[in-house]
Amino acid sequence: MNNRFAIIGWTTICLLAGSLPILRGSVLAASSVPPIYLYSGYLMTASGNPLSGPYRMRFSYWNNPDALAGDLLTSGEINPAAAGYLGWQEADTVIPGNKGAFTVYLGSQNPLPSFGMFSSGDLSTLHLQVEVRPENAPDTSYELMDPDVQNQALDRSPVPAAPFATNALLLDRRGIGTGSGSVPLLLSGGMLPVSAIPGKTNADSFTIDADASSTQDVSLKFGETLGKTLAYDVLGSRFVFNADLHIQGNLTVTGLVNGVNLSAIASGTGSVLAVLHPEFAAAYQGDGENNVGQLSVRHDGGPRTNYYAWTSSRSSLQDYDVIVRLTLPQRFERWSSTPIVMNHRTQSASAGDGKLDLLLFDTAGNAVGVNGGSGLASASWAAAGITFSGSPTWTPGQSFLLKVKFSSKNGIEAALGDIEFRYVERVH
After folding, report:
1. Where are the beta strands (DSSP E) in 289-413?
2. Helices H / strands E in the chain, number of each
3. What's the total number of domains in the chain?
4. Given this model, what pLDDT does residue 245 score?
5. DSSP secondary structure string, 277-313?
6. Strand, coil or helix: what is 168?
7. Which of 15, 64, 184, 328 could form a disulfide with 332 if both were Cys (CB 3.0 to 4.6 A apart)?
8. Among 167, 182, 197, which residue terminates a domain?
């Protein structure tokens, strides 16, 4: 390449030197999206004589510093498929003035690309290629402005952060930050960092925990010192306040409050306690091979309790079933928070010696999951509170089934006393 030109001057974008002029230019970025860069310098011959022109200057963006043979087509045009070409180029005609001075407004012929369209890798290796030819010469006459003729791998000038960092840090003269008038910076996924959450929004919805961390509680905190929170308890599927709640106005509740149906109370309902005392009407069943033992009804004078007793002298657990069928009243509304309480005693605290297990079937005949009703064992009389799980069916006026399995060995007595049923019944 013949060194016919040189560009000299000062620049914040690049310093170009080589077969064409040494270029020093300056860049001004708009406070919003930068549509134009002001690029200026001096165009002169390699021997230092200023040129008067006109000349054609071609600018282009690349993500590498080394110009290769395949970067240009045989026509002299930039190869759009060239490796490293970032898709933007512009050609401007310049007529140098006094001492060869010229000014080019990059983006005036072809809009500059938004830096947001480039990957972080492209931005970190962004280079500007500058070429010059006489105005009426063909494109094959373009000469590359090499910033360092001694370095064969450096043919383009790196674009420093200034052109787009100015835009990134100042938007309409507003800087990035969390103070009044500042511009918040979005994180990956378009989310605001916690420190930049605005005081209010005019949108119809505002999502907290947008990354859907469904296994963790989500909390809204009021004041660092105050420390009051409104949290969603994921495991309990409920909202939790850590302070008192005052409602100024009407409150409508469609579910339960501490196990009480407020709408049912408003319509005239009350709690009911029904107790079965042994000997209650029941069916008896040995449902397998381990059914050797004796079932009887006895009385404990201390707590004045009648109870069913099952004992077996065998060395392995033997079991027997007591089955009760009950009908829900027509005014049945719902079960209380602890629907069933079973009074029991096994003489041994080890369920391996004797125990009681509850099996329950709803009014549709389906097995009901019970909590607190399995492996009951206590050396003295104890009351086991039993709750339900799942979505059992309880239809007023229909029957449900309760089965208590007694297990005993080595003469240990498994005993069942009163069974309490707690529910809410409509008064009207």
Report:
1. 294-300, 305-311, 318-327, 332-345, 354-361, 369-371, 382-389, 399-408
2. 3, 28
3. 2
4. 86
5. -SS-S-EEE--SS---SEEEEEEETTTTEEEEEEE--
6. helix
7. 328
8. 167
